[in-house]
Design brief:
Helix 1 (about 45-60) packs parallel to helix 2 (about 80-95) and helix 10 runs antiparallel to helix 11. The longest helix has 15 residues, at about 45-60. The protein is an alpha/beta fold and about 475 residues long. It has eleven helices and 17 strands. Pfam families: Metallophos, Mre11_DNA_bind. This is Mre11 DNA-binding domain-containing protein. One of its GO terms (molecular function) is single-stranded DNA endodeoxyribonuclease activity.
């Protein structure tokens, strides 16, 4: 996000000048909504959808000029029909209206439009649509474009875009030749969406998910180019240069929404984090928020807004040996250990009951007890432990997790022994199977084959495409390439 012309760093992340409503661009900022996460779960299946609806309602309440989503709107590259249906219905319900859009589009409305069709890429420029709150979104690594052929790579955001419900930005063509660093046809080129309200001008530079290896190459060879948007006004080459005011960072789920200064750089970074917990990690336990962002001239102000529909998530870490010493139970008594863990589970989260911003009490909480069992000879089954809390927590199957401290590595004493071969004529088949080392079998088998190596990164990407994106041809195409 930048001003169309080079600007100085704001003195602070607040509007110090007199507020001029006609000049203030108001934005609802969110990222990593992961709609569709655990959609078949009877308890948590609607969490992501409910919170996305809350975000849309907040945008209406705060009378924003547009909504900005920074990636991973969907949890999967190919969301189910039910997820698409409900997402489109919510967008239509809350963003289409006869409310006039106050931000004027200065850039070309046809930049990024669907090839072969006449309607513009920016939905509120289409005279056939009544858009009250425009939605701008980039794709993330979960909902990135896939596919090939004459139509090019597509994703769920393309469907929402042609339906006139969102404005899909940051879709960068990565098919260009990357062998020549000085080639004008290669590299990553980012064109801005230019907006204006009163005397405030805003440039949105969207960059969807790009694989780390590719981004590293493009940055190292100085091939990330911010495209010029005027004969006398331009952003210099290189990413996040001095004309940028605010960088909105997606993908990371920790909520660090308060703008942070970057040492040696004249801009701020905000990381809204996810609006739904997709893992039981420390970062996901941080209270989740969206932001009401106001921009006037060269200054901006960000107001965090707690999300009330997010399922409560509490986490506690215990070292069982220390707890046993303090509370006087034996590490060899499984019944006493389970009794202690049950009591700790009952106490987790009690301090949040009086919190006015907490979610409704009827929402079952997510609870994670991480227990260090170093020195404990035997523990009960954690899944069986969680079953006791069925109907009382949202995640009984993974409520309890055991960890142990890693033992210090000890030097192994190597004893030279003659390795037995699978072709040893003095051994019977039964003796071979009993005495020949498995590693030796594999080594001899591979030595007899004519094999070609597949690159680790490429094969890993192909497998991920097959598993995460349901691309049944990914591995075949990589192997035959």
């Amino acid at each position: 996000m930048a001003s169309p012309e080079p600007v100085e760093r704001p003195a602070a992340t607040c509007l110090t000048a007199a507020r001029r409503p006609d000049d203030i661009i108001k934005i609802m900022l969110a990222t990593d909504n992961h709609i569709g996460y655990l959609e078949r779960d009877p308890v948590r299946g609607q969490d992501a959808m409910d919170t996305f609806e809350e975000i849309l309602k907040l945008a209406v309440k705060y009378d924003v000029d547009f909504i900005l989503l920074a990636g991973d709107l969907f949890h999967e590259n190919r969301p189910s029909r039910e997820v698409l249906f409900r997402t489109m219905a919510l967008l239509r319900e809350h963003t289409l209206s006869d409310k006039p859009v106050q931000v004027e589009l200065l850039s070309n409305p046809d930049d990024g439009k669907a090839d072969g069709f006449s309607f513009p890429a920016i939905n509120y420029e289409d005279p056939n649509l009544n858009v009250g709150i425009p939605v701008f979104s980039i794709h993330g690594n979960h909902d990135d474009p896939q596919g090939a052929g004459h139509e090019g790579a597509l994703c769920a955001l393309d469907l929402l875009s042609v339906a006139g419900l969102i404005n899909y930005i940051g879709k960068i063509d990565l098919a260009s030749d990357q062998k020549d660093p000085n080639s004008d046809s290669g590299g990553i080129k980012v064109k801005p969406v230019l907006l204006q309200k009163g005397n405030t001008r805003l440039a949105l530079y969207g960059m969807g998910n790009i694989k780390d290896q590719r981004m590293h190459y493009e940055l190292r060879t100085n091939r990330v180019r911010i495209v010029k948007h005027g004969p006398q006004e331009y952003v210099p080459e290189g990413m996040f240069d001095d004309s940028i005011n605010l960088v909105v960072w997606g993908h990371e789920h920790d909520c660090r929404i308060e703008p942070e200064e970057v040492p040696g750089k004249p801009y701020f970074i905000t990381q809204p984090g996810s609006s739904v917990a997709t893992s039981l990690s420390d970062g996901e336990s941080i209270p989740k928020q969206v932001a009401f962002l106001e921009i006037q001239g060269k200054e901006f102000q960000m107001t965090p807004i707690p999300l009330r529909t997010v399922r409560p998530f509490v986490m506690e870490e215990l070292i069982l040996s220390e707890e046993a010493e303090e509370h006087g139970f034996s590490l060899t008594d499984k019944m006493e250990i389970n009794k202690f863990l049950r009591s700790r589970r009952e106490n987790v989260g009690e301090e949040d009951e009086e919190d006015d911003t907490a979610p409704p009490k009827e929402m079952l909480p997510l609870v994670r007890l991480k227990v260090d069992t170093t020195g404990v000879p035997e523990m009960s089954n954690p899944i069986r432990f969680g079953q006791e809390f069925q109907g009382r927590v949202a995640n009984p199957k993974d409520l309890l997790v055991f960890t142990r401290q890693k033992k210090s590595a000890q030097k192994a004493v190597k004893i030279d022994k003659p390795e037995l071969s699978i072709d040893d004529p003095d051994l019977s088949t039964q003796n071979k199977l009993a005495r020949v080392r498995f590693a030796q079998l594999v080594e001899e088998y591979l030595g007899a084959q004519e094999l070609q190596l597949l690159g680790e990164n490429g094969m890993g990407d192909a497998i991920q495409m097959y598993v995460d994106k349901d691309d049944s041809t990914a591995i075949k195409e990589y192997v035959s390439a």
